[in-house]
Design a protein that fits this description.
3-stranded antiparallel β-sheet; alpha+beta; 1 helix; elongated
Length: 61
C-alpha cells in the first residue's frame, strides 16, 4: 500500500474523488491476503487489485 500513497496524494491534489479498498479477511483459497488494497478513482481508474481473476461480484467500473 505505501506505493499507492504518491498517486493518492496526486489525485487528491487535483480534486479527483478516490477511495482505498482492502482485503480484511479471506476464507479458503485466495490469491491475495489481507492487506491487499487498490486505489480507485471516481471514474473507475484503479491502481492495484484485490483479485487476480474472477471474483463473482459485478464491479461498477
Amino acid at each position: 500500500m505505501p506505493e499507492l500513497v504518491p498517486r493518492l496524494l496526486e489525485w487528491q491534489a487535483v480534486g479527483s474523488p478516490c477511495a482505498v479498498a482492502g482485503v480484511v479477511a479471506v476464507r479458503g483459497s485466495a490469491p491475495l491476503r489481507p492487506g491487499a488494497a487498490p486505489l480507485v478513482r471516481g471514474d473507475g481508474t484503479a491502481l492495484g487489485s484485490v483479485s487476480t481473476g474472477r471474483t463473482g461480484v459485478s464491479r461498477p467500473w
